Sequence to fold (522 residues):
Amino acid sequence: MEQGLERRLAAISAADTDALHGGQRGVEKEALRVTRDGFLSTLRHPDGLGSALTNRYITTDFSEALLEFVTPAFATTWEALQCLCDIHQFTYANLGDELLWPASMPCLVPEDEGIPLARYGSSNVGRMKTIYRRGLGFRYGRQMQVIAGVHFNYSLPEDFWPLYRQIAGSTAPLADFRSEQYLHLIRNFRRMGWLILYLFGASPALCKSFAGAEAAGLKSLNADTWYEPCATSLRMSDLGYSNQNQSRINISLNSLEEYVRDLSRAIGTPEPSYEAIGVKANGEYRQLNANLLQIENEFYSPVRPKRIARSGEQPTAALRRDGIEYVEIRSLDINPFDPSGINQNTMRFIEAFLIYCLLEDSPRIDDAALGAISANHVGTAKHGRDPEFRLQRGDASVRLRDWAAEILTNVAAVADVIDSHEGGASYMDSVRLMRQLVKDPAATPSARVLSDLEETRSSFFEYVLALAANYSDYFASIAPLDDARKAVLEKEAFDSLRRQQEIEEADEISLDDYLQQYFSNY
Fold:
């Protein structure tokens, strides 16, 4: 174990065995609505799910067909998973004859013009959200935007921070110290986050209806399926989110001030290729602006520092106001072997891994280090299960399995401290499961997907469509939601429609003026 980590863990355990217990965790999970034939849905957002603009539990992402389920923050993984399961069950009851696609790479997708943008009503804020998505379509292509994933949100307990500030010997204001340490965590997650792709990546193959795969050099598994033999997460490769347009944008993680400065600068910096698209055409907005980023959310990163924003407040303004509140992990594929797309072992391991990233030494990241980090990330996404695959670690080249084994030893030490409070071994059990995946790449989710495809002689599309039908049956067969849990989701759907109407009726300025006012705050 690294000396810094060992010392900090020992100090935390000696001072308060409860210090790592009681953090908040939440899940955001995306899922495409598809027809029973496996085609992308062209229907509007189901009425029974309420308003996609204001429903706190069920919204949409890029497309009208791309649902996003959002749990509140909970003190236990079980509560988060139960809530996610409830949202799935409630949604299925309102889908009619449609299914939810249980994989990250999409179903049978049409050309870009056939993919409907998400719609949020007639208010200025609702129209702005649709324009932003239209801009993403012009910039990156709509097909790329219907790739789905799972986000895991986590914050350490509030009582942890005064104790840890004392252990660190810091005299900084608590909010500043917390932000500094969350960036410490984020830098280490960027260095070692390739492990998440290896352990939980589940997108080694995709449907040939997805454009660009052949140009990316993928291989043909069968008549309808592209794949990469040792891939873990093609979603997180240069085929998906780690694309060339985004790779040119460098946002510093060395301080909150630099992070906010760089994001704001990118939002205010014109980009010639986006200027060529035009901001408006025939009176209709094509994008919010022609800058490197339209808004903060356009910058894709496997991990983001977050603070809940007030109404109308930009994410950077929220961070500038009170610092980092939690971190959002964005590199998880949907688990096709789990009806809800994620399970407790995944959440427990990521929690322990994040705490390890916090407690481990975390030097600043310069441009050269960022280049190696990005190469490790993309390389693991496309070739991570190759026994010969190596990662760049400082000046050395190391085998993935060797570095992974070292990381898991350190994560186990954190898991042991968490379990000492829980009185069980659930966190250590999650680490043991991950050790097995490092020892046996064939047991990883990505390898299991390819094994199933080869064994069943199915196309990717046929395979996932069968899973979708099975999970629809599963959620119909389990015990119905009890009255109280069902009432919460029904009330939120009903109230969300009223809130959207109130927002629309409250608008007093034009969309042009609204956007000018919004961007004047940068």
About this structure: The longest strand covers residues 24-34. The domain at 3-266+302-329+345-519 is CATH 3.30.590.20 (Creatine Kinase; Chain A, domain 2). The mean pLDDT is 95.
